[in-house]
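QA checklist item 7 of 12: single-chain prediction sanity check.
[x] sequence parsed
[x] length recorded as 610
[x] structure emitted
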Amino acid sequence: MIPPGGNSAARWLTWMLAGAALLFWIAVLATGKDWRDALHILEGEAKVKSQDRVIAYAHWGLYWGCLLDAVLCTGLGATARWWAAAVRPGQAVKVARLSRIGWVALFTILVLAGTVRWLRLDLSLYNDEAHNFRRYFSGYFQQRTDGTSRWREPSWGETLWLNQVGNNSTPFSVSARLSHAAALRLTGAPVGTVHEVGLRFPSWVAGLVTLVVVWILLRRLFPGSAACWWGMLLLGLHPWHVRYSSEARGYAFMMLGVALCLYFALRAWQENRWRWWVGMGLAQFFALWSFSGTLYYLVAFNGLFLLGWVWRVWKGRQGWGQLWGPLFGMVVGAMFAVPLLLPMLPQLLKALQNNVSIHGHMGLGWWLDLAGCLVAGVRWVDSDPGNPVNLALGRFLSQQPWIWVGVGSVGLLAALGSVALVRAGGVARVILVAGPLAVLGGWLAMGRQGNFIHLWYLLHVLTGWCVVLGAAGSFGNRHLWQRAAVGFLLTMVLTGWLWMGLRYHHLGKEDLRGVAQAVPAGAFHAAAYSDVDIYDRGVAIIEQTSELDPLIARARQENRVFYISFSRKIADPEFEKMFKRIERGGEFEKIAILWGQEEGQFTHYLYKLR
């Protein structure tokens, strides 16, 4: 444990930084030759296996990351006696002990939130989850030239460092891989089986831990009020958080990192102790490691935090040496991030250039969709009006105008919570402004390059948003009518969110497993624009339209009924001709439509040859 401050803290930090510097210099010496060999691999024109290229990225990034950290630790350690002793810690801020009824309430909220999320864990994987299942978590069956297949499991190097399309959340990938392997061992399932609950269990745990962190945060921000309970309930039932803390993606880990950052920042602001500054930096590193897009939020948060801290130091005439606390905390986070994230940087830059899904315009519809996600957990604009089960706030408002009452309730709570945070001052004001500033900064930075920010890339603002709404619960301590009015608004919002969250229970983004289950055993199954092969090992994936007729002939030769499933992920003219032939040519009979969510590309169509 690092002492609070003074010469004792300076000695501790000197020894800790010296030890870290020694380890980093040893790592630099040990990887000195590896990074040069890796550079030859990365710059060479020869074709290299995926896992070899990933290891080359790792050697290159680890060497330069460790070198930078070694220089930083050496410099900081050599000068710690001057800057560390200047930080003067404040008094520890204590909160009241929780009563027995409070513990029961805390447990009840966790059970409710956990149940709403658990109901979604066994839904079918969708496209991004299916990609990560193949490349990071489990593996896939690779076809040999002789027609047989072998199970191709990703190396641990690929789980840790591969990020060619920018969607590998390393801490989640590692935990999901271990959790999935444990689930297969416990159930005795064979290799290649998809165990959805095993994959998503780490997200479920991270989501519930985030609720507890937000509860502790609000309990310190507004002691003696109901804000902590309302904030925990709001995040626990927010449909956007329910969804992404029950899917095999890394966003639940990222939101946990953001929540920890806010909590440690509050403790550091209140007490100015080294342990909280270091905790803040480590939490920021964890959030960034979980999802690199969190950078926009962290830049906004750290910039505002430093401005507020400088103002506090200047106003209180405490001495500019007090700036070393937040600066050191941020440097600690950066020192962990550099060697672990640097190997992914070249891959991320290539993904930004080549990934067509992030190229586009962010106009009014994008802003409306973001508002819909924050207000109701779903997009505002109904981008798939022909889908009878698509969840869109605009559709709900047009069909049932009374839902505007719920939208207005969220707006009133946001206004009341903003007032409460401004009155609280300090970190509370930073939390209030950091989210909108991060969204605006990301919109400007990406928009200038002609890039598009997917809405789920902005989940880093959700924790702070629910803190703002929960802060409204601090009103009404003196007047019963105020407490009743705020309680009514919060209850209205929570009821609507619970209803929406329960609808997510049976509405996944894409029903790949349903497609596989709809094809009878023994039938010949072909698929186009689909990841159904993670559930159906025998499916024939159509890569070119010319493959359709030979597959039909093969099915007839084998005396098997021919089924074909497809989705419209890309408006390819040749494939559209094939789809029209299937739908209108009279050769095929429609068997099922498996509706997806948000976009038409996630709906699958199943036909049978007559």
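[x] summary fact logged: The CA atoms of residues 417 and 472 lie 4 Å apart.
[ ] second reviewer sign-off
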